[in-house]
Protein: DUF485 domain-containing protein
Organism: Streptomyces tendae
Amino acid sequence: MSDSYSDKNLQDEVSELETKSVTAARLFDIRRIIGGLFVIYGVIVTIAGFAASDDDIDKAQGVNINLWTGIGMLVLGLFFLVWLKLRPTAPPTPPVEEAGKK
């Protein structure tokens, strides 16, 4: 009787660990990390582009490179975050138990 009790505890622990694993996989999805970093850096570079002086623009042959790069980084970061929202990480499928076991 204690053997079946320990098997039930083991099954409960395994299912709890699987749930935690899925949560951790979603939390540390590489799309979230890349998207978040690109959005943060994109905001910083875009602000630098708005604050660029005429000398800075002349150095870049008349192009406000910080502004355009910042906007590009924002678009790429938002793309990754929208992709994460539209296609979340699929949870792993639980193992199929045999019909004879209980």
In short: The longest helix spans residues 2-27.
